[in-house]
């Protein structure tokens, strides 16, 4: 079961997918937090999308640790507007 957190923006939606990756790789929040030297709350916010800004240094540490891309963790989907 997918547990992607969605954050609606004015012209689209952000999808936060870190929870799925951690489940797939059987990695706990505590473990990734400890291994990447990243505060537990920061990891939790990357999972839920409850953040104001994304620290690219944290994101790069998490991507390196999980051997994934930024798009695997957070994705932006622009809303398609009709001209009708």
Descriptive report:
With 84 residues, the chain is an alpha+beta fold. It has one domain (5-78): Orthogonal Bundle (434 Repressor (Amino-terminal Domain)), CATH 1.10.260. The chain is 45% helix and 18% strand. The protein is built from five helices and three strands; from the N terminus they run ββαααααβ. It has a three-stranded antiparallel sheet with strand order 1-2-3. β1 and β2 (12-16) form a beta hairpin. α2 crosses α3 (40-48). It is elongated and about 50 Å long. The mean pLDDT is 93.
Quick synopsis:
This protein is an alpha+beta fold and 84 residues long. Helices cover 45% and strands 18% of the residues. It has helices spanning 18-24, 29-35, 40-48, 56-66, 70-73, and strands at 5-9, 12-16, 74-78.
First and last CA, distance: 36 Å
What kind of oligomer do you see? single chain
Number of domains: 1
Number of helices: 5
Order of helices and strands: EEHHHHHE
Strand content: 15-25%
The chain-level structural class is alpha+beta
Shape: elongated
Total number of β-strand segments? 3
Proportion in helices: 40-55%
Question: What is the CATH homologous superfamily assignment?
Answer: lambda repressor-like DNA-binding domains
- Give the name of the CATH architecture: Orthogonal Bundle
Residue stretches low in confidence (pLDDT < 50, at least 5 long) are none
């Amino acid at each position: 079961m997918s547990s992607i957190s969605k954050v609606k923006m004015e012209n689209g939606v952000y999808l936060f997918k870190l929870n799925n990756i951690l489940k797939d790789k059987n990695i706990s929040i505590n473990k990734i937090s400890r291994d990447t030297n990243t505060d537990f709350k920061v990891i939790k916010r990357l999972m839920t999308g409850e953040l104001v800004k994304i620290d690219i240094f944290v994101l790069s540490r998490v991507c390196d640790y999980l051997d994934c891309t930024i798009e695997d963790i957070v994705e932006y989907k622009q809303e398609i507007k009709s001209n009708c």
